[in-house]
Amino acid sequence: MAMAMAMAMPSPFWSFFILLLFPCFLSVMAVKQTYIVHMKHHQKPSSFETHHDWYTANLQTVSSDPSSLLYTYTTAYHGYAASLDRDQAESLRRSDSVLNVYEESVYSLHTTRTPEFLGLNTDLGSSAGLRIQALDQASQDVVIGVLDTGVWAESKSFDDSEMSAVPSRWRGQCESGVDFHPSLCNKKLIGARSFSKGFRMASGGRFMKEPKENESPRDQDGHGTHTASTAAGSHVANASFLGYASGIARGMATHARVATYKVCWRDGCFGSDILAGMDRAIADGVDVLSLSLGGGSAPYYRDTIAIGAFTAMEMGIFVSCSAGNGGPGRASLANEAPWITTVGAGTLDRDFPAFAQIGNGKQFAGVSLYSGNGMGSKAVGLVYDKGNSSSSLCLPGSLDPARVRGKVVLCDRGLNARVEKGEVVRDAGGLGMILANTAASGEELVADSHLLPAVAVGKMAGDLIRDYVGSSSNPTALLNFGGTVLNVRPSPVVAAFSSRGPNVVTPQILKPDLIGPGVNILAAWSEAVGPTGLAKDTRKTQFNIMSGTSMSCPHISGLAALLKAAHPNWSPTAIKSALMTSAYNQDNTQSPLRDAAGGGSSTPWAHGSGHVDPQKALSPGLIYDAKPEDYIAFLCSLNYGVDQVQAITKRANITCSRRFRDPGELNYPSFSVLFGKTRVVRYSRELTNVGSAASTYNVTVGGPSSVGVKVTPPKLVFRQIGEKLSYTVTFVAKKGINRVGSGPEFGWIVWSKEQHHVRSPVSYEWTQM
Predict the structure, then answer these.
(1) How far apart are CA 194 and CA 185, in angstroms?
(2) Does 550 qualify as catalytic in the annotation?
(3) 38, 78, 110, 223: which one is catalytic?
(4) What does pTM read for this prediction?
(5) Residues 160, 189: contact at Cβ < 8 Å?
(6) pLDDT tens readout for residues 492-534
(7) Which CATH superfamily does the domain covering 108-349+492-617 fall into?
(8) Which of the following is catalytic: 63, 136, 139, 148?
């Protein structure tokens, strides 16, 4: 079942003021917010029976209020989260027991065709099809933990009729809430928890008084149900979204178990809640963690997700995170840590065509998921307020009902939600809407289930329609809808919204890692909310079509579960390597992958290693592996302080006696080369043979003429499975070519043997020469 994530959440409340009115004056108390306190875990005095007792005592040195303590962490982090004012936080920083104190970060959500598109519905009469079927059955031993907005447990996507008994090693549970009973869990949905203390603190406890924000695992948003079912939803026959995308809906690993951890609420996803969810998921025994959420770039020791993911990686848990929906802007990535698999979004070969015919006889193709009665067969007036940015964007309250009533309104894409623009037009009396892209979105088309007849068109069509409205004394338009079409070419195409590199936290690590399906994805939905999420949308549907890197992330999570079933002894790094080095870089027209933001060729800053290919990932031939100690050497090479490295690794004996001379020395499946004061960059890599015993791989390279590349040795001869061999790559920026300020260039390195092609993308940047 293909699934995706919401594009954004409302801005969070970072702090709040409590005003107490006394008889003669108004007193303003100190501002409190959530802080995460990193303790010297291994120095717990013997007088305290547990770390929780010790953490509580530490907090009591600055606060006597028991409600100040929100969480204590024991697995994903060593410390606790507390509600403090600035002075209290500063006092704790001076404590001998405390390594550091950090302000909580706030994160946002990144919002049936895909199994076939990814080759998972291969004919069961073939050897590939039989292997996929066997792995899907084997994935019953794999548990995917989804940190999101909760779950609609009643969805058919969580049917357990084909599932065996829950693995005895599972330590999770289903929580009880006013709207969620533990009996809703079963052999498919084996865990459901919620974490809200951070959100409650930031919102002043308001949500406990509002029915739509009950403290329970119940999904009132839809996003969490969509992502969980995308990763591991069961087969559901005759699924569709209001008649669109009809067929069999299923997740990537239909027999894998699902455990959901609700960490996202009305005002966002708070770091203290996320860390508590990761802490619990790791302790419960998940094998894969899927997080379709993220925030801005930050050093790894300040990144809640990166810190929790490091512990997960150490314990053999694969962590998949969405890259973000900040594209096509440069350096817009989230979740950049190298121990995380960072996923961008691409399109499917399925579309939902719709058409806008204007009065000069021209017709423009677009997309739509509108499912109503339409606007008839007669053209009506077309309105566009070019000179008014508010009304051209169709912002709330910006349209004049007298001007738009009974007409089609042309709205520019941007600033507010696409579906909200349609609501604004409808509320003003408009009959229909043409949603036209601007330069920011290019030719990317994302279908939405609008409340009125609406067609989304690309920038070029939008510009022509804008010109027509401006030049015609009586502009008109008629909208028509074409249902569902398959085998769209070209596909996949990198989504314009998908966040791009370079990696600003560690430029020597190329991100994103790869892309997966993330545009117009059908998956299960919460029946507590309409498909648009708008308050006025009273429609109920069991499935919804969504777009975002939120949708691409759980695809990779589910595929990782299949690889975990196929190779139970592989590390998370090995699984990531297999997914990356086997990814493809040509679309279904045999042309290089294209970028929807402009229509030109895509680059590894947009698509990473390429588009995931599950069949090839199952047998990659060679893998780039890394141990936790390698990641520690990487962190030490970033010149972090020992306490900062300890905050990430949770190890007390860090000395940084081993460090890379350059962070790019990490044994990563891709390369990011920075030419600065030197024209020569040299990296070594180690490959592990996971294919056949006697294997010889030859290297080929490609790239710009401005860089010379030499690989030593050019041939790797493996004699047995599990053998490790190293090679060195020397990159030389050629003399007389000054590319400083002219942008990046890209190439590739491939180790090949018969059917195996182990491909690594390379990015080049010139910072100074």
Answers:
(1) 14
(2) yes
(3) 223
(4) 0.91
(5) yes
(6) 999 999 999 999 999 999 999 999 999 999 999 999 998 888 8
(7) Peptidase S8/S53 domain (3.40.50.200)
(8) 148
